[in-house]
């Protein structure tokens, strides 16, 4: 049975949202994760799925993206893999 909770550390909804525990290049601060979670209502930004969610930088950090809420989205594994072939 899948539990649905607000994000706590790296657990999000029925899956796990990826972020490093220690600040680094791909770190999404807790405050931003909470804002993005609420904005997305715990769903993938592309397909609306609720499983296997990851925090994703809309524009990669290497290309000028930031950890600001407008540069971060929730994506499920399938949508993240599709995006990785495009970016």
Task: Describe the 3D structure.
The protein is an alpha+beta fold. The chain has a single domain, classed as Orthogonal Bundle (DNA Binding (I), subunit A), CATH 1.10.30. Helices cover 22% and strands 14% of the residues. Strand 1 and strand 2 form a beta hairpin. The N terminus is likely disordered.
What is this entry, summarized?
By secondary structure, the chain is of the alpha+beta class. It is built from two helices and four strands; from the N terminus they run ββαββα.
Chart the SSEs and their pairings:
Layout: E1 11-12, E2 15-16, H1 30-40, E3 54-57, E4 72-75, H2 77-84
Antiparallel strand pairs: 1-2, 3-4
Number of strands: 4
Q: Strand-residue fraction? A: 5-15%
CATH class: Mainly Alpha
Q: Write the CATH architecture name.
A: Orthogonal Bundle
Number of domains: 1
Q: Provide the residue-averaged pLDDT.
A: 77
Shape: flat
The number of distinct helices, counting runs of at least 4 residues, comes to 2
Amount of helix = 10-25%
CATH domain topology:
DNA Binding (I), subunit A
**Biggest sheet, spatial arrangement of strands:** 1-2
